[in-house]
Prior knowledge:
- Chains A, B: Catalyzes the condensation of pantoate with beta-alanine in an ATP-dependent reaction via a pantoyl-adenylate intermediate.
- With 282 residues, chain A is α/β, with parallel strands linked by helices.
- Chain A folds into 2 domains: 173 residues, HUPs (Rossmann fold); 89 residues, Pantoate--beta-alanine Ligase, Chain: A,domain 2 (2-Layer Sandwich).
Amino acid sequence: MQVVQTIAQLRAILQPCRSEGRSVGFVPTMGYLHDGHMALVQRARRENDVVVVSIFVNPTQFGPNEDLAAYPRDLERDLALLDKGGTDQVFCPSVEELYPPGYMTYVHIEGAVTETLCGRSRPGHFRGVATIVSKLFHLVMPHRAYFGQKDAQQVAVIQQMVRDLDFDLEVVPCATVREADGLALSSRNTYLTTAQRAQAPLIHQALQDARSTIAAGERRAVKVVERIKDRLAAIDDSTIDYVSVVDARTLADLETVTGEALIALAIRVGRTRLIDNIRVQV
Amino acid sequence: MQVVQTIAQLRAILQPCRSEGRSVGFVPTMGYLHDGHMALVQRARRENDVVVVSIFVNPTQFGPNEDLAAYPRDLERDLALLDKGGTDQVFCPSVEELYPPGYMTYVHIEGAVTETLCGRSRPGHFRGVATIVSKLFHLVMPHRAYFGQKDAQQVAVIQQMVRDLDFDLEVVPCATVREADGLALSSRNTYLTTAQRAQAPLIHQALQDARSTIAAGERRAVKVVERIKDRLAAIDDSTIDYVSVVDARTLADLETVTGEALIALAIRVGRTRLIDNIRVQV
């Protein structure tokens, strides 16, 4: 496994791969890797000749009052995991390498896909995500890029961007990896106290209950949302950011559960913001 | 020469070029070609194995009160010129092919490079330019892309975008091609009446005079601008949009002419908006 910090090194390494016609699978991450990330790496390994993973805590996707400085980091552990997972290249650039002085360019996706759900409480977040992913796509030029469905809105945003800007690559969404008790894996879970961690599985349970309710015939989104909120209320010291039923592709709010729907939520447990979601096909 | 209208056809044709390692030179245009465009094509022909030209009147770079519908078009004549000029592929897609229903993504460059000069009177123009050029870069994946210096701000915007978003290609700015009397070639010159056309060379003369003034020692931008405006006042039925002295790379206003400076202007002659510029190295 090779670890590179600069754009010039990365390009020098990937150029021969491309001219030899080898397929490149890419997993962009912010590090502090867990089994969710590693599932992406494993899938990239199975489907491509070359596996590239980036580790970069991207400042442009954090708001001024968010956890950029505190975001957990452990490069040594990450590299050991990636080496074992069969990664070929790790790209872990400095902030200055990707955003040099005088940096000015941003990719923005308009409409519900960036304005609903997390877009409402995290203004500018998806602009930062779209911008860094554009840059990384240009640097790595992957044939396939792997993203976890836990960040369902991120997947929808990237898919919209890839379609609109005609990126010549395949976005591969991968199922959320969960703890045995249902909690979706997240680097932010490390912030939870033992008591908070014990109650956190209620989030996934509330979503599963919503799926059952829909399977039993409920179609009114407002009723589904209400039921989830009732269940989340059992989590101590928590504040619901949103619970929404939206079209899985456009993320436009649905009044009636229909077609491919996404039920997504964000909740603050103590000072930790957790997200989760589930898809239903009606 | 092959002429294609769809993304799928273009990709199918260019894929083998890339895998065979042939270099691709790209000239994006809005059609109604003149010798300025053809100079770009000739240079692309000299420097690359494959020459791709796009013809697309891009709606997202026109403001609501601009000349989108009236913009001159003559595809048949353009294709004859390109064929004679040694073009390999012409891409002339429909608006729906590049902006299908539900299109949502835009590339925006902040700061002086888009906000000064034409950016002031054409809000959103460079967002449209950056967006379409991003899309075309993803579709053509050129090694080199050719732009005329007549649109100096467009060149600066594209260079900033290519640097910031890490596009792996070279932007090649090419000298403005002029009529014998100095008028910069532009598809919009066709709008001019005979009387307006007769006075239009005063634009380039005013810029050349400014260069002489600077060569003679003048460094105060305000004096240079004043002198140009005095000369432009001789053009009947005209309104000056701007005359500016800016840093050639960042396009930030200069008080003192220094380094690599760009002297740029836009003037409305009757209902036709003309632009021109000159570079000075102090």
